[in-house]
Amino acid sequence: MRLWESASHIFPYSLEQVVAVFWDRYPNSKAQHILSEDVIERKIDGNQIRTKKLIVKKGATFLKAAPRWMTRLTSIQVMPTLEESVYDRATRTLTTYTRNISCTSLFNMHERCVYKPVIFEVILRQRLFVCILKVSKAENQRDQQWTIQPRTNLERAVWVNVNYGRIDALIERVLVISFRKSVKRTVIGLTEKLEE
């Protein structure tokens, strides 16, 4: 099994904006491989909104990176995936779990994404504000208004497990490399929807 964790990505939008767009992110120009997206279940449980979606993709773009002689992987035409998300309004986090639900005898890919507001920026700006006030207090007694731009942090990890005999590790490495490339398109697609 191979684990890959991406570097954090920061969206210049509030968590609430990201969550609203997340549930309505398809279609977008970077996700033309999505054939359908269907909500299977959505329920409110206290402060949490739990959603299960079936997302059907055309083939699996990351599987196309596998060598052609691995016809069991490269011949996949449709890839259904299950996406489970939990938006916790109390902790202000959106956590998603996505996994393939077909071809599991050949491979398993499990992705976890955690979206949460960027807190450290507020603390740094408050400290900076105090320092500036001390310096400028003698020069300028008027009130200063500061606006703190909300931001959302995305942390992503994927686990890949391949059942293909002796070359499992090699195929896992190829799939992770290909997945890393697709993550860039995913972020661009979500940003595109946020900008609408």
TrEMBL record:
This is PRELI/MSF1 domain-containing protein. The lineage of its organism: Eukaryota, Metazoa, Ecdysozoa, Nematoda, Chromadorea. Residues 1-196 form the PRELI/MSF1 domain. Pfam families: PRELI. It comes from the Eukaryota. PANTHER family: MSF1/PX19 RELATED. GO terms for cellular component: mitochondrial intermembrane space. InterPro entries: PRELI/MSF1_dom, Slowmo/Ups. PROSITE patterns: PRELI_MSF1 (PS50904).
